[in-house]
């Protein structure tokens, strides 16, 4: 009886020890995340501080490079004029719509190509050729076909991000473990069940990676489209600022673009965490 009691106490002590080790591990992980975030903020702050100092001391010409204080003043002026959120809203909406459409349409096309190996063999060389084409050169063509306006900008965004999404997601589908697919087929699973129960769940990391890539591509497509045709938006402000030598306006628009792209990317990261959490 005494021996059993000693064994129980020993096991409880071991569990307590493991739990404490686990707590220490979680603490280290949390501190590492905090350290990474603090260093990122410090790098950002130091870069802006050096930029301001170099401009004030004339190491760089503030007329050409602008400086944080002038960027802030330009942002305040745009806000007071009532156009700041108008331009930001137009660009963000176009980027978001192009991002969502590019991801959804690209994933659907990838599913179709995975479903039909015959169709995949036919279209594969065309996809490679389309991916190698300079999409920016197609901008004037889209404007003539569709007309000047947001639709042409969204189509430009699709042209830049769609083929990359198709190739990325299709490659993820084709690299799924064939043994798992054969196991489902052995138990009489249909192709639709293979897709929904094996291929798609196994390709979540690939799809998330495609989303992360599409964040950057969507912003590139929107800005290129706004360079060519827009009368409003951050791309329009950049072109206008460059034409009239208002470099403060250019740098302000670029910084706002960077912040907006970072927010969209963090949204994809949050989605990734939610999927991983639900999958676990």
Keywords:
single chain, mainly alpha, MetI-like fold, 0% strand
Structural commentary:
By secondary structure, the chain is mostly helical. Helices cover about 85% and strands about 0% of the residues. The chain is flat and about 75 Å long. It starts with a helix and ends with a helix. This is NitT/TauT family transport system permease protein. Belongs to the binding-protein-dependent transport system permease family. It is found in: Cell membrane.
CATH superfamily of the largest domain: MetI-like
The profile of the biggest β sheet is:
none
What CATH architecture of the largest domain would you give? Orthogonal Bundle
> In CATH terms, what is the fold-level topology of the largest domain?
MetI-like fold
CATH class of the largest domain: Mainly Alpha
Q: What is the averaged pLDDT score?
A: 80
What fraction of residues sit in β-strands? under 5%
Low-confidence stretches: 11-16
State the total count of DSSP E strands: 0
How many structural domains? 2
Radius of gyration, rounded? 26 Å
Total helices: the number is 12
Blueprint (SSEs and pairs):
Elements: H1 2-56, H2 62-65, H3 68-80, H4 84-115, H5 117-132, H6 139-146, H7 150-174, H8 178-186, H9 191-202, H10 204-228, H11 234-243, H12 247-279
Helix pairs in contact: 3-12, 4-5, 4-7, 4-10, 4-11, 5-7, 6-7, 7-10, 8-9, 10-11, 10-12, 11-12
How would you briefly describe this protein structure?
Keywords: Cell membrane, Membrane, Transmembrane, Transmembrane helix, Transport. The chain is mainly alpha-helical and 280 residues long.
């Amino acid at each position: 009886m005494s021996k059993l009691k000693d064994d129980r106490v020993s096991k409880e002590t071991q569990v307590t020890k493991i739990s404490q080790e686990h707590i220490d591990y979680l603490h280290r992980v949390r501190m590492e995340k905090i350290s990474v975030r603090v260093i990122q903020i410090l790098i950002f702050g130091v870069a802006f501080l050096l930029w301001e100092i170099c401009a004030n001391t004339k190491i760089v010409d503030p007329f050409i490079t602008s400086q944080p204080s002038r960027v802030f003043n330009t942002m305040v002026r745009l806000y007071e004029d009532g156009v700041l959120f108008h331009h930001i809203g137009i660009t963000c909406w176009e980027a978001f719509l192009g991002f969502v459409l590019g991801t959804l349409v690209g994933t659907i096309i990838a599913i179709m190509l995975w479903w039909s190996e015959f169709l995949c063999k036919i279209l594969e060389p065309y996809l490679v050729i389309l991916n190698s084409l300079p999409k920016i050169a197609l901008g004037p063509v889209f404007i003539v076909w569709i007309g000047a306006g947001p639709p042409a900008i969204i189509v430009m965004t699709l042209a830049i991000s769609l083929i990359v999404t198709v190739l990325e997601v299709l490659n993820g589908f084709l690299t799924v473990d064939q043994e798992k697919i054969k196991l489902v087929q052995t138990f009489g699973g249909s192709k639709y069940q293979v897709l929904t129960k094996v291929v798609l769940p196994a390709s979540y990391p690939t799809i998330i990676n495609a989303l992360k890539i599409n964040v950057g591509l969507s912003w590139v497509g929107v800005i290129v489209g706004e360079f060519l045709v827009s009368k409003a938006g951050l791309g329009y402000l950049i072109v206008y600022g460059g034409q009239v030598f208002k470099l403060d306006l250019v740098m302000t628009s670029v910084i706002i673009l960077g912040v907006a792209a970072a927010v969209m990317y963090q949204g994809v990261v949050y989605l990734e965490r939610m999927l991983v959490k639900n999958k676990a």
